[in-house]
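Input record, target 12 of the design panel.
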């Protein structure tokens, strides 16, 4: 099929790296692996940080201009399908539902989310747009069970299917497993990321008598504040690697022993899958979407949310128990390369699309 792809939060060509950009690119790769032709329909970002009418009015104006452009572009050869990745209350899809209805093609979403608590706090109109898109969709691909339950609770007539997070596992090889080398990959920014860095620093302080070093890969506007969290450990224990490309991250992971990232309010975290693809056991919290990408007690240890002592103890356990760490390393490698790889996701995605669109649509 010829598929029009749209990511209203961050287009796949955006210059700033993030998990959202990475997942958009990987969905495109999975669809192309299945034989489809992809076109990024628009780079319009519909994101507004607050619900005030002014910014939203400007984005609606830009959307009308984009709609006019797309109508002209596809007048003779329209796409067969519109695919939108990650519409939520701050980034509704202002393009796909209208185009899909006008030219009569199926509409699909991935990682759409809906939370009732935003209905009455200024986001009501955006919430209505999300609900409309979910109802229109031939299928809504839900990366987490939390998102699936949230959609069906608010929009029971929506068609939802589980489609777990995945990565291109090819760049990641088995770690040489230096058991004392801890590693984390995350941007240095405020909010949930800073909260995770704060918790990680506090937990490591509880086990500072153990033999370990920590490599941190990432950069961002909070670099000074994050560095200060770890200043008491000294330069020999904390290695700051800055922002790195995927091949460079894969190389760093291949020399580590444990992936440590608390994951405060993490949607799911593709970095967990990358670490496991390099055969690194994970130590994280059993919170938000983390259990969707880490198999508790098999590929890593998940501790209660906010329990710093339990988190520190989990790291200490795997530093000490070499046999358990090796078993988890093998399980982690197999889990990602067999179940959460690009090839596995492409097959799963093709099966879902055929189920909801029908073979006759493919063969027309």
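The sequence produced for target 12 reads:
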């Amino acid at each position: 099929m010829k598929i029009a792809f749209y990511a209203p939060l961050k287009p796949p060509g955006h210059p700033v790296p993030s998990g959202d950009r990475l997942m958009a690119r990987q969905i495109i790769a999975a669809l192309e692996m299945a034989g489809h032709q992809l076109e990024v329909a628009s780079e319009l970002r519909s994101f507004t940080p607050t619900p005030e009418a002014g910014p939203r009015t400007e984005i609606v104006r830009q959307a009308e201009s984009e709609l006019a452009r797309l109508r002209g572009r596809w007048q003779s050869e329209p796409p067969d399908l519109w695919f939108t990745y990650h519409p939520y209350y701050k980034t509704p899809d202002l393009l796909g539902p209208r185009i899909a209805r006008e030219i009569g093609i199926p509409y699909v979403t991935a990682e759409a989310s809906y939370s009732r608590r935003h209905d009455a706090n200024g986001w009501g109109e955006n919430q209505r747009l999300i609900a409309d898109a979910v109802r229109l969709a031939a299928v809504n691909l839900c990366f987490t069970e939390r998102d699936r339950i949230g959609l069906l609770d608010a929009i029971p007539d929506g068609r939802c299917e589980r489609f777990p997070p995945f990565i291109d596992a090819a760049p990641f090889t088995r770690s040489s497993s230096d058991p004392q080398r801890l590693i984390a990959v995350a941007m240095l920014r405020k909010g949930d990321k800073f909260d995770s860095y704060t918790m990680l620093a506090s937990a490591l302080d509880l086990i500072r008598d153990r033999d370990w070093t920590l490599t941190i890969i990432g950069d961002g506007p909070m670099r000074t504040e994050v560095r200060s969290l770890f200043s008491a450990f000294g330069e020999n224990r904390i290695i700051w690697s800055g922002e790195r490309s995927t091949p460079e991250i894969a190389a760093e992971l291949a020399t580590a022993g444990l992936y440590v990232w608390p994951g405060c309010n993490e949607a799911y975290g593709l970095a967990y899958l990358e670490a496991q693809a390099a055969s690194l056991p994970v130590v994280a919290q059993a919170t938000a979407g983390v259990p969707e990408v880490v198999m508790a007690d098999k590929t890593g240890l998940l501790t209660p949310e906010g329990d710093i002592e339990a988190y520190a103890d989990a790291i200490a356990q795997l530093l000490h128990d070499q046999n358990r760490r090796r078993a988890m390393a093998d399980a982690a490698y197999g889990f990602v390369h067999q179940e959460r790889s690009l090839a596995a996701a492409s097959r799963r995605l093709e099966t879902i699309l055929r189920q909801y669109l029908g073979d006759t649509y493919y063969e027309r």
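The chain has a mean pLDDT of 93.
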